[in-house]
What does this fold into?
Amino acid sequence: MKEQIESIRKELDELAAKDMAGAATSRELYELKMEYLGKTGKISALSKGMRDVSAEERPEMGKLVGQLRARAEELFDACEKTLKKRELSQKIASEKIDVTMPARFAETGSVHPVSLVKQELIDIFAGMGFDVFEGPEIERDYYNFQALNIPADHPARDMQDTFFITGEYLLRSQTSSGQIRVMEQKKPPIKVLSPGRVYRSDSDATHSPMFHQMEGLVVDKGITLNDLKGMLDEFARRMFTSETKTRLRPSYFPFTEPSVEVDLSCSACGGKGCRICKGTGWIEVLGAGVVNRRVLENCGIDPDEYTGFAFGMGLERIAMIKYGIGDIRLLFENDVRFLKQFKG
Ligand code: PHE
It folds into this structure.
């Protein structure tokens, strides 16, 4: 018995000399502890063995086994404590957050130049009392053509190479269709702006099969071409520079009479002539005119009582002039390196 006690004590001394807490996991440490202090452990076996010890020896042996147990408990308790401390500090270290690290940079988007132009136009015209109306992109032949004084088979249809869906439905080729929809719903005085996508079978550096237009329509008593001119002067100054001038040239649209093409003095060269205005000093920006009386009649508005003007401009074209963009396709490729330049 004494030898057994002695050998277990030696084992415990060896364990104490090793850095148990440094090497073991808490699971391993627990198993080791059970090997000595568990119900079937070595020290418990000693206690059971006391039965066979003679009565004289028993008090001494009992004392020694008790000391051994105390020694083992002390050893494992200390180890457990160190191990817990070590595991905690490891956990803290692994979950450490470096608050001084620079934040991860999230790339933010920017408003597309066509949307910028659209919003700016709406701001300018809203300031002059215009409402905004948005019509459908899939439109009936009636609204896109017939009611605008462009009958079926009329050669004026060739001005806009149209995508037909059926004989009756098409992708609108102009926001002028919105003029009819507005005048059907509302009687004068009318002052609306109608932005939206339009479609034409056309594609090169200055034409895209889908592009955006902004339509304007004013109908009231005594409206003349002069009102159009005055309003466009204001628009030109606000959209470009205070020096920008407008010029009206005679043109033709079936739904306006007279019709005009509107040029702006080139804001890049101030009208002297440059690459952007192709040396002319002027840039064509929109079509306009006095609303044809047939169009008013088609919408149930008396052309002897009311007159009006209408205009339509391409938003991509305005953006290209304003930002000096040479190819319309840049506006549709959506290359972020291009779009980034319009931030802020
Ligand atoms: N809708 C015409 C076009 O797309 C422009 C326009 C609008 C002309 C309004 C006159 C009046 O070319």
Q: What stands out?
A: Residues 330 and 337 are 11 Å apart (CA to CA). The chain has two domains: 2-94, 113-342.
